[in-house]
């Protein structure tokens, strides 16, 4: 392992706060407007200061960037856009020396169509061993002119693209649950399985502490690839209806979708579990699996499979006390039943940032997210207030929490990007009907001064930053009492000091239906999701998401109190 040995054998991931870095948008050291690994290394001390335990890096591997790096053309190298393998070594050593663990992304459902494996499959032709590594099929219809089935891409449009044979005639079709540049592997292939074991070992040998597994519920498809019509909302990542996610990544998809949550995926993770277990230290697998209900998702984290799964049910829950209480109970029970910690998450690079999402109203709440047709954009003041309260609640909960870069600054979704700047394939595949996810991927502001708010040493950032983000820059919040950054720092420090992450939830009634209040060890947490003020119970106020006047907790505010000893 490179860098400092972190304490092994502690199952650190059960209580960890894991900070997601989206490399394109975190920090740019070479001035080309795109974030890079050297930029991340330089900023790690600020994450140490924030108080996180680990970082998760979204993909930085060689890629044509058709899906912002989730289209990998070499799993064991760094894209020149982000640096070199040496830069990765420096990043990891710097992180480990600071006591920060490093989780990297792995994208096993599909590769880039530029990957040598896919190019070899195209060249080798139907029936070849190379084609058996991906999901090629003959088309239907007289001349194979119709797709093999009716599946739709998560990003819009058909999930199949027809190939052209070397002589120019139309050939077989290949499956891509995402963009046409992301062909799906066929995980029935033992060759594919062996390649991915090797990829895991490549990064484990370099000392990574684990993997976030992309589309961890999608790798196995039902035999015969039967037709399937998802609910009206269109393409879906699976899971239950969300209130305000980017459209298309959640829907009322029954568990029978023949491309999601098939039993065969579990054999793959049992195998990967063994690969990780052969390494010293606590290496982890974290599932991106949009599976409902939570009791079903818990299958991904049975003791011999993965260690964590993103709790998207929590992310999808509106700012509403009864619903929050019920999803918290359900999460602790479902994950607890299989001996896994619950995770908690409010934002990531695929969803509308929670400082905007929690203030969406009406129609926008019904799974339409923010798009060109959105009427009534979220109120940013209300959104930030709710986001601070929601984060304060989340960070008090037992288990492991995920943060997405910029939420500690209270960044909202960037809702008015110029169309010419958009890069998300969803935007292109839906002919501009859906914005996609660029609005949550805008480079983050470090300093109020300068063209790109300290993000880049050059002048521009790859997506334009809203002018008002100057006021949210880290240097404007650092050390400023009451800032969102200081709220996060305080929450992370108290969470550690009071061992909240390894505690329990004991609900306290009596504050009315709009309040979620509970005891975790010697701390009482009171989250007021309504608009009317309530009286706080006895106890010293340790943290409040808004300034308190006397012992009143206003609406959309969360407070932590130290319990009074009898
Ligand atoms: C989930 C990732 O989080 C998302 O960004 C990506 O587009 C899809 N998987 C496809 O890899």
UniProtKB/TrEMBL annotation:
One of its GO terms (biological process) is oligosaccharide catabolic process. It comes from the Bacteria. SUPFAM superfamilies: (Trans)glycosidases. GO terms for molecular function: alpha-amylase activity. InterPro entries: GH, GH13_cat_dom, O16G_dom_2. Residues 20-441 form the Glycosyl hydrolase family 13 catalytic domain. Belongs to the glycosyl hydrolase 13 family. This is Alpha-amylase.
């Amino acid at each position: 392992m490179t860098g400092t040995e972190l304490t092994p054998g502690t199952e650190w991931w059960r209580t960890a706060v894991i900070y997601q870095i989206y490399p394109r948008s975190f920090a740019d050291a070479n001035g080309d407007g795109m974030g890079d690994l050297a930029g991340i290394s330089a900023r790690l001390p600020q994450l140490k200061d924030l108080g996180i335990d680990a970082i998760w890096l979204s993909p930085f591997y060689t890629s044509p960037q058709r899906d912002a790096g989730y289209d990998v053309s070499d799993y064991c190298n760094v894209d020149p856009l982000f640096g070199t393998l040496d830069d990765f070594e420096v990043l990891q050593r710097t992180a480990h020396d600071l006591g920060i663990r490093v989780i990297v992304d792995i994208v096993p459902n599909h590769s880039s169509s530029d990957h040598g494996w896919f190019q070899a499959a195209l060249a080798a032709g139907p029936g070849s061993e190379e084609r058996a590594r991906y999901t090629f099929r003959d088309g239907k219809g007289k001349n194979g002119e119709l797709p093999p089935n009716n599946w739709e891409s998560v990003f819009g449009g058909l999930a199949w693209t027809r190939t052209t044979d070397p002589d120019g005639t139309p050939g077989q079709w290949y499956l891509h649950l995402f963009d046409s540049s992301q062909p799906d592997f066929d995980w029935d292939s033992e060759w594919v399985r062996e390649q991915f074991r090797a990829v895991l070992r490549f990064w484990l040998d370099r000392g990574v502490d684990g993997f976030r597994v992309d589309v961890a519920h999608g790798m196995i498809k039902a035999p015969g690839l039967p037709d399937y019509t998802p609910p009206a909302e269109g393409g879906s990542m699976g899971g239950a209806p969300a209130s305000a996610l980017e459209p298309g990544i959640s829907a009322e998809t029954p568990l029978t979708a023949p491309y999601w949550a098939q039993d065969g995926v579990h054999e793959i993770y049992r195998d990967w579990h063994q690969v990780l277990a052969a390494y010293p230290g606590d290496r982890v697998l974290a599932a991106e699996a949009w599976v409902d209900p939570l009791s079903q998702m818990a299958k991904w984290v049975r003791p011999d499979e993965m260690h964590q799964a993103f709790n998207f049910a929590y992310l999808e829950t509106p700012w509403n006390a009864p619903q929050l209480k019920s999803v918290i109970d359900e999460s602790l029970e479902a994950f607890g039943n299989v001996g896994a910690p619950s995770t908690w998450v409010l934002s990531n690079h695929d969803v509308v940032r929670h400082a905007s999402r929690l203030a969406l109203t009406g129609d926008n709440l019904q799974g339409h997210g923010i798009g060109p047709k959105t009427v009534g954009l979220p109120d940013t003041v209300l959104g930030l207030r709710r986001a601070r309260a929601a984060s304060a609640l989340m960070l008090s909960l037992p288990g492991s929490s995920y943060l997405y870069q910029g939420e500690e600054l209270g960044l909202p979704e960037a809702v008015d990007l110029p169309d010419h700047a958009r890069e998300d394939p969803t935007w292109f595949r839906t002919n501009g009907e859906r914005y996609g996810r660029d609005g949550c991927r805008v480079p983050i502001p470090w300093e109020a001064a300068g063209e790109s708010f300290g993000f880049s040493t050059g002048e521009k950032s790859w997506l334009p930053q809203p002018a008002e983000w100057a006021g949210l820059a880290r240097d404007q919040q650092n050390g400023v009492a009451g800032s969102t950054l200081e709220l996060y720092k305080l929450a992370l420090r108290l969470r550690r000091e009071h061992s909240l992450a390894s505690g329990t939830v004991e609900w306290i009634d009596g504050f009315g239906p709009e309040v979620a209040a509970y005891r975790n060890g010697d701390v009482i947490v009171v989250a007021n999701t309504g608009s009317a003020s309530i009286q706080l119970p006895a106890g010293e106020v340790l943290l409040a998401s808004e300034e308190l006047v006397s012992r009143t907790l206003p609406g959309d505010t969360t407070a932590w109190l130290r319990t009074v000893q009898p």
